[in-house]
């Protein structure tokens, strides 16, 4: 045990130990495989640490001795031997056994230098040529994919974007909508419904009349998604998921089905009319003439976000209000969420330079949202009474400040 204790708590030093077993075999522990020579004696001191005398030496499987004579040490390096310690437990660092780190385990600067020194001029020319060809092919592919005339040509053949992708997405979107109607759609399938609808609102109509896509349709495809997720992200922020919570069904206000159907058809027709009315996409001016469009986009997103935030803040389970909201956009209009939706459509039509289609879709939205707002206000008066009537007296406009 004393010998084991010495080995466990010792540091590696530049001379050897010799362990003899039955005076016949000798084993040598040498630091860094250096050749050391020493004579062994019966000294009971090892590194200045006293060892207890061994009474029954014959019972031990081996004997340990340290030489006090002169040592002959052969060193082939200038640096002093590194200090190391012994640990009786396995390492808990999993990074040493990580499969992705194995190629880099023995990587060193000397090996990299040796690898580069072995490169011949022919190797350098070969790898430089491969790298140049790869860069040129990537650049050519990117230019081809982003070239609108490439898509214009292939869209006529019904083989590439947008028709093949758009029709496949529409079919899958209808399947997901069927599952949603029976309450079995997953989160991914609900997102597929939204993506399918926005594709046929913002991408397919201008692609049909122009033969290719560029500019504002791509921008608004992502803006529509961002706008939509302001609504559903409230549940994620409050509850950690997107699923609706059980609540009083009296707050699930929906106009008649025919009214909802006409609204959906009217919005779709309005977007197609905008693509037909507007000029070809490459004729729509860019640059500073579109600063107003970007300002309207930001205003739309901010209005939608703040309206949803304040409504959720003063509501229970997102859709059940517990107080009359009079902050944020609710200081100017009584239904700012509907106003932001109309402003989003109006901004898209302005970007495509389609004013007549803009008037059409605003009229469709006013008829539908006016009907829905009337139902909500009646319920708010029934719930909050004089408080909501007082709020209606302060904020007289439903959707458009100073107009309606």
TrEMBL record:
One of its GO terms (cellular component) is endomembrane system. It holds the Pfam family PEMT. It is a multi-pass membrane protein. Keywords: Lipid biosynthesis, Lipid metabolism, Membrane, Phospholipid biosynthesis, Phospholipid metabolism, Transmembrane, Transmembrane helix. GO terms for molecular function: transferase activity. One of its GO terms (biological process) is phospholipid biosynthetic process. PANTHER family: PROTEIN C-TERMINAL S-ISOPRENYLCYSTEINE CARBOXYL O-METHYLTRANSFERASE, PROTEIN-S ISOPRENYLCYSTEINE O-METHYLTRANSFERASE. InterPro entries: Phopholipid_MeTrfase (IPR007318). The chain crosses the membrane at residues 130-154, 160-178, 190-209, 215-234, 258-276, 282-302, 345-370. This is Phospholipid methyltransferase.
């Amino acid at each position: 045990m004393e010998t084991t204790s010495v080995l466990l708590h010792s540091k590696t030093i530049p001379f050897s130990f010799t362990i003899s077993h039955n005076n016949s075999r000798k084993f040598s522990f040498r630091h860094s495989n250096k050749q050391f020579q020493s004579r062994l004696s019966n000294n009971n001191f090892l590194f200045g640490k006293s060892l207890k005398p061994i009474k029954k030496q014959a019972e031990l499987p081996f004997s340990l001795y340290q030489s006090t004579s002169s040592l002959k040490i052969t060193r082939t390096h200038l640096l002093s031997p590194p200090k190391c310690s012994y640990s009786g437990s396995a390492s808990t660092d999993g990074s040493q056994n990580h499969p992705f780190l194995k190629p880099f385990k023995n990587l060193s600067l000397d090996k990299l230098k040796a690898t580069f020194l072995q490169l011949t001029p022919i190797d350098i020319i070969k790898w430089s040529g491969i790298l140049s060809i790869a860069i040129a092919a990537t650049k050519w592919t990117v230019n081809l994919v982003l070239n609108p005339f490439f898509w214009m040509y292939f869209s006529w053949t019904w083989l590439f974007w947008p028709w093949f992708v758009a029709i496949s997405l529409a079919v899958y979107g209808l399947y997901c909508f069927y599952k949603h109607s029976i309450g079995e759609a997953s989160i991914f399938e609900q997102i597929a419904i939204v993506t399918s609808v926005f594709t046929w609102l913002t991408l397919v109509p201008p692609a049909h009349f122009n033969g290719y896509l560029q500019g504002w349709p791509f921008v608004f495809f992502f803006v529509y998604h961002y706008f939509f997720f302001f609504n559903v992200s409230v549940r994620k922020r409050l509850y950690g998921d997107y699923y609706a919570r059980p609540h009083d069904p009296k707050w699930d206000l929906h106009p008649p089905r025919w009214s909802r159907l006409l609204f959906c058809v009217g919005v779709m027709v309005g977007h197609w009319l905008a693509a037909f009315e507007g000029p070809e996409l490459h004729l729509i001016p860019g640059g500073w003439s579109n600063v107003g469009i970007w300002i309207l986009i930001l205003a739309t997103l901010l209005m939608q976000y703040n309206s949803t935030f304040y409504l959720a803040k003063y509501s229970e389970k997102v859709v059940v209000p517990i107080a009359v909201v009079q902050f944020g956009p609710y200081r100017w209009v009584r239904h700012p969420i509907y106003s932001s939706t109309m402003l989003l459509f109006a901004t898209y039509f302005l970007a495509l330079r389609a004013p007549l289609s803009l008037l059409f879709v605003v009229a469709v939205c006013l008829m539908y949202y006016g009907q829905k707002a009337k139902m909500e206000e009646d319920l708010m008066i029934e719930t909050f009474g004089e408080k909501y009537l007082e709020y209606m007296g302060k904020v007289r406009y439903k959707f458009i400040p100073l107009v309606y």
